[in-house]
Automatic annotation (TrEMBL), chains A, B:
It is an enzyme of class 1 (oxidoreductase). Catalyzes the oxidation of 3-carboxy-2-hydroxy-4-methylpentanoate (3-isopropylmalate) to 3-carboxy-4-methyl-2-oxopentanoate. The product decarboxylates to 4-methyl-2 oxopentanoate. The keyword Amino-acid biosynthesis applies. InterPro entries: IsoCit/isopropylmalate_DH_CS (IPR019818), IsoPropMal-DH-like_dom (IPR024084), Isopropylmalate_DH (IPR004429). This is 3-isopropylmalate dehydrogenase. Residues 2-343 form the Isopropylmalate dehydrogenase-like domain. The record marks 136, 186 as: Important for catalysis. The gene is leuB.
Length: 347, 347
């Protein structure tokens, strides 16, 4: 099994290095690793955020462990050369359409959330975000209005096949959890959402054991503050999923702790912490590597059939936290590698 | 001065009636009132959510006090006949492009928020949401892909004139407050956002006393949970504004308390509580009328030049809360009209 390591920019290399140490410590037979440059790092070396070598490694690999992309030095480049294009390109080229973002409070970090403790403690949800469509990948550009005004435009769309496959992902995920699925859209305004809702309702007939509800996105943003414990699985489009999954992550209070998986139809996946490249603390050994370590665990579970190894990592992270290990984002002073050591010690 | 009263659906008529009693008690000379049906109520009586009589009253009026629209019995109607089209139609037909949604904690309700007290107490922000453009009003529909699949689509766009006028609104609002403006977009993905950002930066040169920053919408949704006290004025497009303003409202914990104004270029405005029609409690005298009473205060201040009367209403609401008046949403048992009485008594 080949794992592609794409550390990327900012704190990416530091946190991926710790995850690699943890993977090495598990000594799982048959795993091989190759790394490649991506994001700003790809641009600076090869003139492109997703160099052909990197894309071809990603294609060959059975799974991808991704750090983060984003580099302020690239802010003025044209859109197609910016670091973000690397992650968008990988999602699209590899048909990674199903983004799973669990948000659950770590009991050891109960005071990290700005939500009242009893509200935060009740959070145990999974956001299933569609990643290959929506206004992200439609035709877009600058044009002139009839009056000669500059206008920016982006076409939002979903077709029935795109909605159907993410709906199936979400219903299956709900079935494996508490059996509640909330589909979030803006069907009172958007035709894209109307199709989304129609297809989700159609797919629901195949999952009569799952309780389906619908919520407008503005209400969902409110409910995630008012009573996030009401949610089990939320399924939504690319744009709303971007917003709501970041909001939900912050509700559990520890963005440095949260992992994500982006899967294709065959279980191949890209695994990344949901935090970004954090250029302000890059290279200082301050970053929290746990989100990446937990992403490696998700990778073992979902793409490599190593559920037991995944369990071991997750337990070790819990133990490290329980023993008081805290990086700066968690209110402590531990360095990135010291946190890696703490997890290794707990393994 | 003519005020159009458009109570609409659900709890709309109940809460608008209380606001009218408060306005009457102020006995401001020269105010006249006319009412008309809108939303589901308009549809059931005239076959359209925004009947011509209602639109023409809204045009003639100097200001509009609006209740809420939304009626589950209309859920299966075609989009153009649904209640929501009434509010979208009024915003567009009357060029009400600037939506002001203040969110500030009422000290009397400090425990209503699910955010920790010290986090919620620091909230004092204003969201300036563009209301006439974006994916709300672009071309939209159902079509077939090349492969014959059903596809829903909606075109998102902003032109430079649309962005410029809302940017000026927002910079002026920031100048009158703490001088901080945060523009929220998704410029790393959307061309619409790129134009938005370019124009906001251009307009900023006329407001060198205002500190401008930019934030991606996913990060903004996180920051509103992590540290909402960092914001003074947020300016954003129609869709992101819909989501973030509802999220921010819930952060202050009392959605039944929050007012909003939607203004045209000449100060004419539509005033509405940000809560919806709440069909589940309609007609039971349980609704909290304070958001509508405070919307009437905003109307006096922004459209009718009656700042002093507005101050009196706001002070009376504070006094009523301080005296312990609480409707069900605030954890009390008071009826809608009893809350109206409490405000009248405090006036
Ligand atoms: C970097 C950016 C393009 C990306 C997105 O919007 O999808 C990020 O915010 C994410 O959620 O992974
Ligand atoms: C009713 C709906 C169309 C409306 C909107 O999305 O603008 C509402 O959510 C609002 O925010 O006023």
């Amino acid at each position: 099994m080949l794992i592609a390591l794409l550390p990327g920019d900012g704190i990416g290399p530091e946190v991926v290095a710790e995850a690699k140490r943890v993977l090495d410590a598990l000594a799982i037979p048959g795993l091989a690793y190759e790394d490649a440059l991506v994001g700003g790092a790809g641009y600076h070396e090869y003139g492109h955020p997703l160099p052909p070598e990197t894309l071809s490694l990603a294609r060959r690999a059975d799974a991808i462990l991704f750090g983060a992309v984003g580099d302020p030095r690239c802010d003025t480049l044209e859109r197609s050369l910016r670091p973000e294009q690397a992650i968008l390109g990988l999602r699209k080229e590899l048909n990674l359409f199903s983004n799973l973002r669990p948000a659950k409070m770590f009991p050891e970090l109960a005071d990290a959330s700005t939500l009242r403790r009893e509200v935060a403690e009740a959070i145990d949800l999974l956001i299933v975000r569609e990643l290959n469509g929506d206004v992200y990948f439609g035709e877009k550009g600058m044009r002139r209005t009839e009056d000669g005004l500059r206008e920016g435009y982006d076409i939002m769309s979903y077709n029935e096949a795109e909605v159907r496959r993410i709906a199936h992902s979400a219903f299956r995920a709900a079935r494996a959890r508490r059996g509640l699925l909330c589909s979030v859209d803006k069907a009172n305004v958007l035709e894209t959402s109307q199709l989304w809702r129609d297809i989700v309702i159609e797919v629901a007939t195949e999952y009569t054991d799952v309780a389906l509800s619908h919520m407008y996105v503005d209400n969902a943003a409110m409910q995630l503050v008012r009573n996030p414990g009401q949610f089990d699985v939320i399924v939504t489009g690319n744009l709303f999923g971007d917003i709501l999954s970041d909001q939900a992550s912050m509700c559990v209070g520890s963005i440095g702790m949260l992992a994500s998986a982006s899967l294709d139809a065959n279980g191949k996946g890209l695994y990344e912490p949901i935090h970004g490249s954090a250029p302000d603390i890059a290279g200082q050994g301050k970053a929290n590597p746990l989100a990446t370590i937990l992403s490696a665990a998700m990778m073992l579970r979902f793409s490599l059939g190593q559920a037991e190894a995944a369990d071991r990592i997750e337990a070790a992270v819990g133990k490290a936290l329980a023993s008081g290990a805290r990086t700066a984002d968690l209110g402590g002073t531990m360095s990135t590698s010291a946190m890696g050591d703490a997890v290794l010690a707990a393994l």
